[in-house]
Structures are given as C-alpha cells and as structure tokens.
Design a protein that fits this description.
Distance between the termini: 40 Å
Radius of gyration: 17 Å
Largest sheet: 8 strands, mixed
Low-confidence stretches: 1-10, 148-158, 179-192, 200-210
Shape: elongated
Number of helices: 4
Mean pLDDT: 74
Structural class: alpha+beta
Strand content: 25-35%
C-alpha cells in the first residue's frame, strides 16, 4: 500500500534555497495531449547524469539559477531535488517569488525518443525521452507538476514552428512521429516543439472535425 500522496500543487522550498518537487507525473495528460509513461527517464538519467541537466528559469539557457542534486523516478513521476544558488541575482529573485507563492511551476525540456499515439484518444504516450533541462516556470502545461512540468519554447523559433505544425498535422492523422536526427541537435529547437504544437493546434483546429 502506498503512503498518502503529498500535495503536488506547490514546490517544497527550504530557507537555504533548496527546492523539491515533481518535474513530470506519470499517466497524466498535459495540455499538448502528451502522457509520460513510467520508465521514460531511466535511460537519459543514466546517460546524462545530474551535471548535464541544468536548472533554468523559464527554459532560458542564459538563465541558470541553481543545480539539481537528485533526479529519480518513483511510482508517481520524476522527482527533482535541487538548490537555488544565492549568488545568482535571478535565483535570489526566484527565492523571494517562491516564498510569496508567486511562482511554483516545474517544466521539462526534452526530445521525444520513443512515443506512440493512441488513435482513439489522440494522446501521445511517451515511453522514452531525452531530458535536457528542468526549469522553474510560471505556467506549467501539466496540471499538478509544480515545484513540490509546462513545456515552453524559446521565442522566435519560426523554423521549428513550421516543423511543429507539420508534426501536429501528422498527429491529428494518427501517425506516429519519427523525429529526424538532423533536428535533434539544438536544444532551443526541440524546446520549441511543445509550444509549436500548441500554436499549431490553434491554427488547425478550425479545419479539424472533432
């Protein structure tokens, strides 16, 4: 029997800047209709290690704000424990905002390695992902994934936006998307995948019969 679940709506914050929470929850459908499955992070955590998965603010690679001290899967999702670095100005600001309850979201930046779309529900199940970073954010895409998962994009990613729209069209047709290797390299490009699909959804919804 599992222990009682702790609230997932807020990150746990210690006075010394330590933060803890779930960056991703298994079996939960996010606003882009993706569902991360148990074991999805196992390979990437083994290969990358903690030092290669930065703690960022709003998915901005120019805004590192701390370090992750522990990342592990449990029966609920990806549990993250880290520490804000007080010598960094943005980290001090975040600490104040989090203490006031103004910001409490966690979000992952990743590339899909293996996924499959359910033709009935249109939900894409993610069985393996390549985790690049975990950010403290204002609005997470996944309800309940907070500092205790929103996947947003870096701005001005027009090239990736076109790719995301094509991928979304394929998803609507029930096709499984095979990511081309040429598009996997730039971190910012793949971070744009999630926001691109959201924008693509708005542009194609009126042409789709639900």
């Amino acid at each position: 029997m599992h222990a009682p679940l702790l609230p997932l709506s807020r990150v746990s914050l210690a006075p010394d800047g330590a933060v803890e929470g779930y960056a991703s929850l298994f079996g939960e459908v996010d606003q882009a209709r993706d569902m991360v499955m148990p074991g999805a992070f196992a390979q990437t955590l083994k290969q990358r290690g903690l030092r290669k998965i930065p703690m960022l603010f709003q998915h901005d690679p120019s805004e590192p704000v701390g370090v992750w001290l522990e990342l592990a899967e449990d029966f609920r999702g990806l549990r993250a424990r880290g520490r804000l670095i007080p010598d960094v100005t943005r980290a001090r600001e975040l600490l104040a905002l989090m203490k006031a309850g103004a910001i409490d979201g966690l979000s992952i930046g990743y590339r899909t390695v293996r996924g499959q779309i359910d033709p009935k529900t249109r939900v894409r199940r993610l069985y393996q992902v390549d985790l690049w970073e975990i950010s403290i954010v204002t609005f997470p895409l996944l309800n309940g994934a907070r500092v205790s998962a929103v996947k947003q994009a870096a701005p001005k990613l027009s090239r990736q936006r076109v790719t995301a729209e094509a991928e979304w069209q394929a998803m609507l047709r029930g096709e499984d998307i095979a990511m081309p290797r040429a598009s996997r390299a730039p971190v910012a490009a793949r971070l744009g995948e999630r926001d691109g699909r959201k924008s693509a959804l708005r542009s194609v919804t009126r042409n789709v019969t639900r």
